[in-house]
Automatic annotation (TrEMBL):
It comes from Planktosalinus lacus. It comes from the Bacteria. Pathway: Carbohydrate biosynthesis; 3-deoxy-D-manno-octulosonate biosynthesis; 3-deoxy-D-manno-octulosonate from D-ribulose 5-phosphate: step 2/3; Bacterial outer membrane biogenesis; lipopolysaccharide biosynthesis. This is 3-deoxy-8-phosphooctulonate synthase. InterPro entries: Aldolase_TIM (IPR013785), DAHP1/KDSA (IPR006218), KDO8P_synthase (IPR006269). Keywords: Cytoplasm, Transferase. Its EC number is 2.5.1.55. Residues 9-260 form the DAHP synthetase I/KDSA domain. It holds the Pfam family DAHP_synth_1. GO terms for molecular function: 3-deoxy-8-phosphooctulonate synthase activity. GO terms for biological process: lipopolysaccharide biosynthetic process. It catalyses: D-arabinose 5-phosphate + phosphoenolpyruvate + H2O = 3-deoxy-alpha-D-manno-2-octulosonate-8-phosphate + phosphate. It is found in: Cytoplasm.
Amino acid sequence: MNLQIIPKIKHTHSNNFFLLAGPCAIEGEDMALRIAEQVVKITDSLEIPYIFKGSFKKANRSRIDSFTGIGDEKALKILRKVSETFDVPTVTDIHEVSDAAMAAEYVDVLQIPAFLVRQTDLVVAAANTGKVVNLKKGQFMSPESMKHAVTKVTDCGNPQVMVTDRGTMFGYQDMIVDFRGIPTMREFAPTVLDVTHSLQQPNQSSGVTGGRPDMIATIARAGIATGVDGIFIETHFDPANAKSDGANMLDLKYLEKLLTDLTAIRKTIIKL
């Protein structure tokens, strides 16, 4: 994948990692713009190529009463406004074949959720839009097996594909990152490390997913040291009251320090 193919992406010549970051879900216009403004300011300062992330709907929920979104078109229009306001590309995840063409009208990158990455019809629908496709590695899949998911995209005539590791199931209620998989997947496509989802603690008896945000910096630093091309972080200015995945999101006030540290590590690795 050529990063420069993504509309509005900046700092592609900085030799830095690229960043996909934003809230788990679009909760409203004000919150999305507030988060985007802060992240754009930080990434411009550090010369990090940036893609704003926000889910226009949440289809994978533990309970039927969990937050799923504010309305598909309403959320997608907010993603478009973020892009137009801050001149940045955007990414959102899709869950059904019909989502692909709809979301492609509003965003620059289509993301296939980890639980759905083996769904051929969904992957093909995303590929056929011509948009960049981000394939989240299934928690149940080996790094080697992601080659076949990548091939589904490229066989559609779309070479613009990347892979994101988001941890592997470790027992029933924990995730673990096997950093040996990073160089393996980089042989197939540019590889991103989803730091925050890798620290989820799913399947809690309450029906609300837990997490370990205190370990975000540790996992992110290890990812950069391992040579990932990009970092994925969900962030919010009030994680405790976020409507989705608040337990594992990074408080926005800590993002600048983290990205500054990661940029320094990246520069050191490149010099080696």
